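In response to reviewer comment 3 from the previous cycle, which asked for concrete evidence that the modeling workflow produces usable outputs, we include below a single protein chain processed end to end. The sequence was submitted unchanged, and the resulting structure tokens are shown without manual editing.
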Amino acid sequence: MMNRHKMRNRASFVVAALLALPAASAQAKTQAGMDLSVNGGYASNPYLDSVSSTGTATFTASAQPYVTFRAPTSTTTLRGDVSQNIYSQNYADTTDYSISSVSDIAISPITSINANAGYSSQVQNTLLPVLSPIGGIPTNPNLPVILDPSAPASLTRRVRTLYGGASLKTAFSPRDSLTIGVNGAQVRYPEQSILTNSYDSLGGQLSYMRRISGATSIGLTLGASHNNYLDRVAGDSSSYSPSLTVQTKLAPRLELNLSGGVTFSDIDVIGGTIHQTSLSGQGSLCRTGDRSNFCLQASRSVVPTGYAGISRST
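The workflow returned the following structure tokens.
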């Protein structure tokens, strides 16, 4: 397993890479700011501790600095997050931090690139949903987030995640477009245990969309992923996911996105391989207002877990 020194070096490399992204945009316009938030409450058992479930008052203060670089053909946003979690009794205070970058680059009028990367270090608790390191928070706010099925096993533990991805979208006719994407993540726990195991994940997607009317598009997506667990033979898996997609505007401000298909998985176990077939898909119904957005979202997917193996997440 990667030691702390190597992890710090890798995190430093990511930070340097993120800060270097906008350097080429000499004509970029810069906008910077910071979001501050505080919240308090009461938790009866923030870590689902079966030994001691004494409650505690909670207080969390967060600072999220950001800087956006805008150029004629690109936009890059760097964002940091530092959160201090304070408990009045029974539990030690914790500090979470992360850094991320999202870039949109127009190569030509018909071709664009989206890239994202980041690093996070968090002590998991039940006060906020634990997101899957593979799904995480989507760059498209109209898509649903994916929860981590192994969250109960990682509570009280610091999880370090390094992730990145890129996609290229191009139109080869007024009605047809093609998107190619890759993504990867490294998930590290402080030490190996029966319940939590560090792993690497790598995936890719190929998506074709055709506009059949002014408001509706349909398409086909083919996805593939491979998950590899460190220091463990069983649990490695490969998955393949074909799906159909429909995007349509029900009204000028109301948009419906639906995607459905199946996921075929091969999972390594002691003595062989098992095959698994699962339904998968996602959907959203979003209304865009003058000062607000409202979305109903749902998803079902197959994602890796800290248990060593994949799980269906709904």
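The CA atoms of residues 282 and 299 lie 4 Å apart. We consider this sufficient to address the reviewer's concern, and the full set will be provided in the supplementary archive.
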